[in-house]
Amino acid sequence: MADQLLLIQACPALTDFQWINVESGDEYPSSDDFDEYRQGVVQDELDKVEELEIAGTQTDSSIALAINNMPRIRSLILAKNGLGPLSFEAIQPSLSTLCRFDVQSHDITSAMIQTILCSCPVLEFFRAGVMIARDAIAEDKDWACMSTLKVLSLSFRFESHETHLQDALFARLARLTRLEQLIMHEPCTEFEGEFGLRLSLEQGFGRLSTLTGMKFLSTIDDETQTLGTEEVEWMRMHWPDLITFCSYTSQGDSAWERILE
């Protein structure tokens, strides 16, 4: 750890900071390591850090400590962790300038996702787990990133009786006018009958004609998602810049080549 501190102290213009798990199965760096790091590095040397990536599994308090020591974060990447209450509170002062939020674990609540989408006016990249559909379409919770978001990787979960809410969610997504990539996975369900957003013209998929810059669409990790010929042809007509479409069709085959041809 001492060698790392000396290296960091020698880099006053450091802008990207990455912690990596070097010992399989061990939490590294630990909370004690972060304490040593905080004591050994002058705060001014961290003021320029804009990207924080934590590649290993850490405690909520360790992540919060790292964030608190880097007040100008514009990009937060957590490869194996979600956000706990401490790290979520720590990131609040940076939401107004956050451009990338990339949390690959599903260990983040729908309410947290809602807060981030509603509080980040310059957000361009967003990846998280599952958002409850009612939270996504709440009329009093407008997303602040409507005119900036380019990449959205997020699944939405509906309760069994909420089929009618799909159109409202498509209407919300249709306002992401700069969106270029949309990735949805099969949502983890908690109760019988829950389901994810269906890319069906009958359910409101056609509202996304406003996303004229769409280049990439993937639902390949959602085997319950099946698109018919009408939806595929609709995309070909309304998304002229679409390069890759990765999903399952109603015939059960992968549809990679349907837009590329």
UniProtKB/TrEMBL annotation:
Q: Which InterPro entries match?
A: LRR_dom_sf (IPR032675)
What protein does this entry describe? Answer: Uncharacterized protein
What Gene3D superfamilies does the entry give?
Ribonuclease Inhibitor
